[in-house]
């Protein structure tokens, strides 16, 4: 039997987005009381309910979960997947993995396919394009089909689902404070993901620790050549004493440009990178890095999803979990 009305049809009648309707129905603080009241009144009038086909499909579990990864070339996500696979195997679950390749369109295609009901739940780190364009209607489509969703890593946007990520803001605030405590005054940030939520949080943490905006030094661009030019300015013109690198690309560029311009690490500049420990230890000198515990993120994401699938979490309010990072000091921060 077909619903009297769907989320998309409600949104069309109200001339708002699907996400606005879903947020209103889930009492999101992002939606004004007036809009929420309009949505709920219309939903009640048309006897809206979550898609009954999905509810019927969920009456018997498939023993399978879907995992959407934005970029498999990124070693962080590869390690998260490792944790997901290990925990899912222990729980007796099969994992179907999809790669969005940082594309909103591909992510939409994947989520549309997953609404067919052949998975019990979905783990997703949204693509860069999704994050940048702030288009999340396809994710609300999963909820409309009563499919449990857990967001991992890229979680800094309003969405009524369980989330697990790291303490991005606090990590860079603590790292900046530590370098300042060692007597360094000119500390910069290099970042190629400034447009993503996690990147914005890392910049915010760095800024929180500064005594004055006069001490703010940043090289930010998603374009390699532009980022390279800005990092050279930090090194050669601003002559920063330390650089916090917010991602793999910026870390490698800082190392390469320091070498090319005769700037010694750690004698002339201290460097902290957001990269995997296996790579950090192989560099010469080895680089101090932020340990993000990606396998733990993957394992705990599965735990959250399983609890939702098995209805162990009776509270409908989404859970936000944080995996706390650890700064690992190697040769690049020797004083």
UniProtKB/TrEMBL annotation:
Molecular function, one GO term: DNA-binding transcription factor activity
Q: What is this protein called?
A: Transcriptional regulator, LacI family
Q: Which UniProt keywords apply?
A: DNA-binding, Transcription, Transcription regulation
* SUPFAM superfamilies xrefs: lambda repressor-like DNA-binding domains (SSF47413), Periplasmic binding protein-like I (SSF53822)
Q: Where is the HTH cro/C1-type domain?
A: 2-39
Q: Which Gene3D superfamilies match?
A: 3.40.50.2300, lambda repressor-like DNA-binding domains (1.10.260.40)
Q: Which InterPro entries match?
A: Cro/C1-type_HTH (IPR001387), HTH_LacI (IPR000843), LacI/GalR-like_sensor (IPR046335), Lambda_DNA-bd_dom_sf (IPR010982), Peripla_BP_I (IPR028082)
Q: Which PANTHER family match?
A: HTH-TYPE TRANSCRIPTIONAL REGULATOR GALS, LACI-RELATED TRANSCRIPTIONAL REPRESSOR
Annotated coiled-coil segments of the chain: none
Start and end of every HTH lacI-type domain?
A: 5-59
Q: Which organism is it from?
A: Salegentibacter echinorum
Q: Which domain of life is it from?
A: Bacteria
């Amino acid at each position: 039997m077909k619903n009297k009305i769907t989320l998309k049809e409600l949104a069309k009648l109200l001339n708002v987005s699907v996400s606005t309707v879903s947020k209103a129905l889930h009492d999101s603080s992002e939606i004004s009381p007036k809009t929420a009241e309009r949505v709920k009144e219309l939903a009640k009038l048309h006897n809206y309910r979550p898609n009954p086909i999905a509810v019927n499909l969920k009456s018997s579990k498939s023993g399978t979960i879907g995992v959407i990864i934005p970029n498999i070339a990124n070693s962080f996500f590869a390690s998260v997947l490792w944790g997901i696979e290990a925990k899912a195997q222990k729980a007796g679950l099969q994992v179907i993995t999809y790669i969005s390749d940082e594309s909103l369109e591909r992510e939409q295609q994947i989520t549309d396919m997953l609404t067919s009901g052949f998975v019990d739940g979905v783990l997703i780190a949204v693509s860069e394009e999704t994050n940048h364009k702030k288009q999340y209607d396809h994710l609300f489509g999963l909820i409309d089909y009563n499919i449990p969703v857990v967001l991992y890593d890229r979680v800094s946007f309003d969405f009524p689902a369980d989330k697990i990520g790291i303490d991005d803001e606090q990590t860079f605030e603590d790292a900046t404070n530590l370098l300042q405590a060692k007597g360094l005054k000119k500390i910069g940030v290099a970042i190629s993901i400034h447009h993503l939520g996690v990147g914005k949080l890392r910049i915010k943490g760095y800024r929180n620790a500064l005594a004055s905006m006069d001490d703010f030094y940043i090289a930010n661009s998603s374009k390699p050549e532009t980022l390279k030019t800005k990092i050279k300015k930090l090194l050669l013109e601003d002559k920063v004493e330390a650089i916090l690198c917010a991602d793999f690309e910026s870390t490698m560029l800082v190392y390469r440009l320091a070498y090319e311009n005769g700037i010694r690490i750690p004698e002339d500049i201290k460097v902290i990178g957001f990269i995997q420990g296996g790579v950090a230890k192989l560099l010469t000198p080895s680089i101090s890095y932020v340990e993000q515990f990606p396998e733990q993120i993957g394992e705990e994401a599965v735990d959250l999803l399983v609890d939702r699938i098995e209805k162990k979490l009776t509270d409908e309010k989404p859970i936000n979990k944080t995996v706390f990072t650890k700064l690992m000091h190697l040769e690049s921060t020797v004083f």
